[in-house]
Structures are given as C-alpha cells and as structure tokens.
Amino acid sequence: MSATVTGDQPSPSGTRQGLFRTILNRFRHLIRELGKFGLVGGVAFGVDFAVFNVARQVWEMETLSAKTVSTVVAATIAFVGNRFWTWRHRERTGMAREYLLYFFFNTVGLAIALACLWISHYGLGSVWPGVFKSWLADNISANLIGAALGTLFRFWSYRRFVFVGPAAQDAPPVITKSD
Questions:
Q1: Which helix (H) or strand (E) holds 27?
Q2: Span 8-27, pLDDT tens digits
Q3: Taking Cα atoms as reference points, which of 117, 136, 140 lies closest to residue 62?
Q4: Residue 133, helix vs strand vs coil
Q5: Closest alpha carbon to 52 in 144, 122, 131, 150
Q6: Cβ pair 146, 137 in contact under 8 A
Q7: Running DSSP on this structure, what letter comes out for residue 134?
Q8: How far apart are CA 55 and CA 60, in angstroms?
Q9: Whole-model pTM above 0.70?
Q10: Cα 101 to the center of its chain, rounded Å
C-alpha cells in the first residue's frame, strides 16, 4: 500500500504548498502590518473623502485647500491608529519625534495627492474643463490615484523611518488563554 499526501497531512517542503507556507511564514509579520495599515488607512480614507467633499460642496472651499484640510484631519486619525495599533509592537522613539516625522511624510504624501489633483483639475482641466474640472474627476485624481500613490509612499516611510526597530526587549510577554 502506498502513502498519499492529502490536504490533512503536511506537504513536503519542496512542493508548491510547502513553498507557499514557507513564504507565508517568512512574511507573516509584514502581511499583518500591511493589513492593519490598510484598515487604519481605510478609516482615514473615509474621513478624508467625507471631509474633502463637505469642504468642496458645503463649505465651497477651493479644491487644493479642501484637500489639504481633509488630509490633515485624516492624517491625525491615522497617526493614532498606526501608533497605537499597527506598530504598537515596535520600540517607541518618542512621541514628538514620531509625530513630526509622521506629519513630514504625510506632507510628502499630501504633495503627491495634490500633484495628481493639480494635473487633473488645472492642467488637463484647462484643455477639457467639462471633464477634468468635475466633482468626479477631482475625486478620482485626489482620492483614488493620489491616495494610492501616497499610501505606497507612506507605508514605506512610516515603516522605515517613523515606527522603527523591533519590539523592546523588556516588553511584557503576550499571555494567551489556553483551554
């Protein structure tokens, strides 16, 4: 009788499933951080989107000013979420340092979103105002394209420069309840 590998048995490390598990185990921490960052970013995106549109439609603010205000509000919410949840396991380097670096890199992320919005609204909008100076075009350029490019930059910069280093060695161990 020959032995067969089933879904219930572990696969040898040379198989496709073994390779997938090896890669997953190697990058598990990064996947968790990216997931938490994405969830915090999703909440911040919702706030950014809402404030931007209220500022444009209700308060009748100029486009770039509305995006600046919405980004500052959303970034403040994202800082709290990222510092105390996404990267809570990382060593602290001081609230003032983290806050200043965080908002510096958010300013760069804002510049990326504003550049996308400026190109669309003022650059392409001068050629096709009926298309690129619309509510939909402003939202696509600022809140989709600009936010996506800015988010990639922010994830890299926060992880590399703001919330640095591994967990502190004297951190209390995580206690799990076993049944």
A1: helix 16-57
A2: 555 555 566 777 777 777 77
A3: 117
A4: coil
A5: 144
A6: no
A7: S
A8: 6
A9: no
A10: 16
The residue behind tokens 């040898």 is 12
Q: Tell me the two tokens of residue 21.
A: 């598990």
Low-confidence ranges of the chain (pLDDT < 50): 1-7, 168, 170-172, 174, 179
Encoded amino acid at 80, one letter: V
Rounded distance between C-alpha atoms, residue 174 and residue 179, angstroms: 16
Task: Report d(CA 57, CA 141) in Å as an integer.
Answer: 17
Residue type, 76: T
Other CB atoms within a 10 A radius of the CB of residue 26 amount to: 10
- φ/ψ of 58, rounded to 5, equals -90, -50
Which residues have CB under 8 Å from 99's CB, separation 6+? 79
Cα 68 from chain centre = 17
User: Which residues, in sequence order, are CB contacts of 119 under 8 Å at separation 6+?
Assistant: 141
pLDDT tens column, 85-98: 887 877 777 888 88
Rounded Cα distance between 113 and 27, Å, is 29
Query: For residues 48 and 173, what is the distance between their CA atoms, to the nearest angstrom?
Result: 36
Rounded to a whole number of angstroms, the CA Rg of the chain reads: 22
What count of other Cβ atoms lies within 10 Å of the Cβ of residue 106? 23
Residue-level pLDDT at 84: 87
Instruction: Report the pLDDT value the prediction gives residue 54, as an integer from 0 to 100.
Output: 96
Residue 76 to residue 107: CA distance in whole angstroms: 12
